[in-house]
Specification:
Layout: H1 2-8, E1 16-20, H2 29-45, E2 49-53, E3 55-57, E4 60-62, H3 64-70, H4 92-107, E5 116-119, E6 139-142, H5 144-147, H6 154-161, H7 180-189, H8 191-210
Parallel strand pairs: 1-2, 5-6
Antiparallel strand pairs: 3-4
Amino acid sequence: MAALVLAAQGRLDFRTFLFANVGADSENPATLHYFEQYAAPFAAAHGLDLIELHRETKNGTETIRQRIIRSNGSRQTIPVFLTNGKPGSRVCTKEFKILVTGAWLKAHGATADNRATVAMGISLDEIGRANESKAMPYERLVYPLLDLKVRRADCPRIIRSAGLPVPPKSSCDFCPMRKIPEWQAMHEHDPERFARACEVEDTINANLAAKGKRPVFLTRTGRPLRELFKAGVQVPLFDTDDEACDSGWCWT
């Protein structure tokens, strides 16, 4: 969002912004509200193209939650935690962000011989996340916030300078990269959303149980999410960032 403001101010030479929406049943509802109420009107008012994309299949639009539930958990997609606390593999970022954005780029002329310049909003204090080698064959990754020496702490100020509120953190309702205090806040303040996350975990584990396999979890605790905040259950006070999402594609 800070990059969008900087483009409106003429400090970034980018006019097209892509938002890969993973689904109204999957993405943080506050993120979607912000996109509709603030980001989209702001972009339009400043002559910027802010384009909302979705994953399209031969059967229509697919969301991450739909894939998990409709497959009865066999296509878990997200990086659930194994019983030893380590995260499993994930394809959510690639299939619902990178490839969705890539499909739009290729439809607009991007090829291996005519690569699209794709700017990632990684800030100076996150420079370790910048990795041009992660580019797809049809794109060239650049990091304009690094060139402007913009730090993460600068972003709220930049956004507020345009008269906009700071957006909420973008993540799926059931993202295993969420920290324990974030899960607890969801449990206390948005129980319906929390219940939907529990359903995703339950669905995946029902599939594993039918195959005689060990369960997986949406947290490192090794306990089912729906049991985590019951009375008398001890939960860890702190989480580490060791396995945090570092792709830079959330809110893309």
